[in-house]
Specification:
By secondary structure, the protein is α/β, with parallel strands linked by helices. Helix content is 35%, strand content 22%. The strands form 2 sheets. Strands 1-2-3 form a 3-stranded mixed β-sheet. A 3-stranded mixed β-sheet has the order 4-5-6. β4, α3 and β5 form a beta-alpha-beta unit. The protein is globular and about 50 Å long. It starts with 15 loop residues before the first strand and ends with a helix.
Length: 130
């Protein structure tokens, strides 16, 4: 039986507000060694911004990191699952969709964690070691 995703997710997740600047997003990612930030508005999940998103937007726009808001770079189509979703289910969906992360949220859409490719590799390592 596949374990719940909550056993593999990164629970101490950092988030950012959609009106924060890209500069703030870069600093958060750099300080915490992360590449994914769930984006919130009024406490609810509204998207995800990745380091790749930031780099892409900044490469095409003449504005600076201090002038652009996170909402200019974020994706609003995010894969959200409940904490009891199975590892197998989440990984299968990520592979099928070609995505690198899932957000784990409760019934009220409050972020509980993030599951990324790095977390999937840790799960694979645990499986192979068993």
């Amino acid at each position: 039986m596949s374990k719940p995703i909550s056993e593999y997710m990164t629970a101490a997740v950092h988030t950012i507000g959609k009106t924060q600047t890209l500069d703030v997003a870069h600093k958060l990612m750099s300080e915490h060694g992360i590449h994914h930030l769930p984006v919130l508005h009024s406490g609810g999940l509204v998207g995800m911004v990745t380091l790749r998103d930031l780099d892409l937007v900044e490469s095409f726009d003449a504005l600076t990191r201090e002038e652009l808001a996170v909402e200019e770079a974020m994706s609003t189509e995010v894969y959200v699952v409940k904490a009891d979703a199975t590892l197998k289910e989440v990984v299968s969906t990520m592979v099928e969709r070609g995505i690198s992360s899932a957000i784990i949220a409760d019934a009220n859409n409050h972020v509980q964690g993030v599951f990324t490719n790095s977390d999937a590799l840790k799960a694979l390592h645990d499986h192979l070691a068993a």
